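>> Question from a student workshop board

For tomorrow's exercise we were told to take the sequence and the ligand below, predict the bound structure, and bring the output to class. My setup keeps failing. Could a helper post the expected result so I can at least see what it should look like? The ligand is copper (II) ion.
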Amino acid sequence: MSAPFAAALLPLTLLAPAASPVSAASPVSAASPVSVVEADFDPATAFVPPTAISYASDLVPYGSHTRVVVDRSTPGNTVFTVTVAGLAPGHAFPAHLHTRDCGADPAASGPHYQHVPDPVQPSTDPAYANERNELRLVLRTDGHGDGTASAAVGWQPRPGEARSLVLHAGTPADRHAAGDRVACVRLPG
Ligand SMILES: [Cu+2]
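>> Workshop helper replied:
Here is what the output should look like for this input. Compare the format with yours to find the bug.
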């Protein structure tokens, strides 16, 4: 290899370590007991599928922010903490763990994740559809549209089966039905 050619390669070699923490982030966070997703809400029509999708920009403005912390560090337990900034002020958003990945269609995230799956779907039996068997949060925003909510459950999601956190329209619902899906955050694993 000629010396000029080797010199040309050097900057690429130096770039490689800078890129590796980014590429390692997903596998590490999936295996780590604590995973953190931090993202701005974008429209579902964005060219690159966003980590956080807003389906209702009046309630979840584009560019508003979320942070979802999933803490599995206590065996047999999971603590979910959802923080938002810049959403509709003075609003209560029900938030749940759903089974499938977010998509352009709000229904893409599928049904609620259940620790003990109801053999009858859609699940309406209160023996399965309850806050112990599902993750159910209510995210209340202050006058600035900021808020945080946390809940602990006595289980850990099965890998790959709890792919998203969905925010519903809640109250005041304005132009939406209270149960409409207004935003979706993609979760690792
Ligand atoms: Cu839901």
